[in-house]
Amino acid sequence: MIEKMKFFFKQRKEKKKEKQRKKNFHLRSQGKDPLKGWGSMINSGYGGINKNDLINTGKFDNTDFRKTQSEEIAKKNSSKNLHK
Do the Cβ atoms of 41 and 49 come closer than 8 Å? Predict the structure, then answer.
């Protein structure tokens, strides 16, 4: 029983790998880099925000900061795209 389960999960993993390989091959044939990603991450200005204890420290709103920073990144990325 356990051997059948191991075999099943191994086959499923191999199917996923093969599907990803086909997708990457298709993207490369179009001249795209499948490992490129979306671009720069936004620095929220609050290091370790997920580790903070919001109950004891109170909640904070940094949406304006993130908005302005995302606009700056968008301008930077659009200027890079213009020069290609």
Answer: no
Full-model pTM? 0.42
Q: Are 7 and 1 in contact (CB under 8 A)?
A: no
DSSP codes, the chain: -HHHHHHHHHHHHHHHHHHHHHHHHHHHHTT--TT--S-PPP--S-TTGGGS-HHHH-----HHHHHHHHHHHHHHHHHHHHT-
pLDDT tens digits, one per residue of 64-81: 777 888 888 888 887 766
Angle at 42 between CA 40 and CA 26, to 5 degrees: 35
Q: Note the Cα 48 to chain centre separation in Å.
A: 18
